[in-house]
Amino acid sequence: MSSVLRKKIEAGAGIPTAILQLNDFWQTLQNQVATWITGTLGMETDAVMETRGVVSGTAATGQLDGLLSFVFNSNYSPGLCAIAVDESTATLNASQRLQQPLGDLGGVSELFRKLLLETPTSNLWNAIAADLSGHLSLGSQAPFSDYSSASGGFDQAQRYLMIGFRAADTTQVARVWVVFHLDYVQRNATEFELQAARMRNPSSGQGRETLRESVKSSMITVDGVLERLTLTIGECSRFEVGQLIALPEVDTTRVSLRAETVNGNVDIGLCEMGVWKHQRALKLKTPILEPFTRELANL
After folding, report:
1. pLDDT value at position 98?
2. Do domains 3-187 and 220-297 have the same CATH topology?
3. Per DSSP, what are the bridge partners of residue 84?
4. Can you identify the CATH homologous superfamily of domain 3-187?
5. Closest Cα to residue 45, out of 35, 55, 53?
6. By C-alpha distance, which of 16, 33, 45 is closest to 83?
7. Are 12 and 20 in contact (CB under 8 A)?
8. What angle do helix axes 189-200 and 23-41 make, rounded to 10 degrees?
């Protein structure tokens, strides 16, 4: 790798410093891609990170359109948005799958080569997604979709973390790209650090205390929930602007306070609605509830 390219990668091409410092995240991802290249393409060589940077949704799709790309549905894959390979890598995969020499694959269409990539790409998605919060396993399958159904919809205003890997031996070169929704990586940066620290120091009390303080200083979303309704999808689809929804059982002295954590939303207390200094406010009526404090205590 040239010194210029190495400096470009180290600069991060617009990647926030907090993400650049997630060394375990980067190393784990590189190891997963390297393992996939060895198992899928039969290349006994290390995969190295060749490029990484933050791009807009439009720029990301512009690059993905020039590759053999697979996009993932945000309902199952809220962070990992796409995996792609170049034509030579697709040909290497076809050679392995069909057990034919590379020179005999001249008549294999791009569509067929992409079909041969579906199962290997599912394997790579499952390997990466297994370590990511909110990603739902579909067994051996991956939640393939189009751009509009991916996290952020690859909109121009959305930002994506695009990482390219390269593996080469004496006769062939393979390239793989992995694309994440940047907002997801930013939201989960603390979780990546926690997982890495637990792996390094599973029994370190001092490490847990440091992690606990780190989590306490991180930002989360807290919602005050006045009421929950159970409706059919059909009823929801008929909602109109200006429509009134009756809340006959609402008790303004019993508002649930919920916090978004790495393990999902949890109740952290009960409040009552009121007014303070001429503004609407919530007054906490109970101590912080056990599920939330237990999550901190178990770090």
Report:
1. 81
2. no
3. 69, 177
4. CheC-like (3.40.1550.10)
5. 35
6. 33
7. yes
8. 80
**Model pLDDT for residues 127-169, shown as the tens digit of each residue:** 999 888 889 887 888 999 999 999 999 999 999 999 999 998 8
pLDDT at 46 over 90: no
pLDDT tens digits for range 20-40: 888 888 988 999 999 999 999
Q: Which distant-in-sequence residues (6+ apart) come within 8 Å of 55 by Cβ? A: 63, 159, 160, 162
Give 287's pLDDT tier (boundaries 50, 70, 90).
Answer: confident
Write the pLDDT tens digit of every residue in 52-103. 999 999 999 999 999 999 999 999 999 999 999 999 899 888 888 887 776 6
Tokens (6 digits) for 101? 């020499």
Residue ranges covered by each domain of the chain:
3-187, 220-297
Written as one string, the DSSP assignment of 62-121 is HHHTTSEEEEE-TTT-SSEEEEEE-HHHHHHHHHHHHT--GGG-TT--HHHHHHHHHHHH
Bridge partners for 259 per DSSP: 222, 266
Measure the CA dihedral 21/79/217/203, to 10°. -70
Q: Give the rounded distance of the alpha carbon of 154 from its chain centre.
A: 14
Q: Alpha-carbon distance 29 to 294, whole Å?
A: 30
What percent of the chain shows pLDDT beyond 70?
77
> How many residues are recorded in the chain?
299
What tokens does 91 get? 């040909």
Tokens 């650090």 found at: 193
CATH architecture of 220-297: Roll (2.30)
- Give the distance from CA 35 to its chain's centroid: 20
What's the confidence (pLDDT) of residue 52? 92
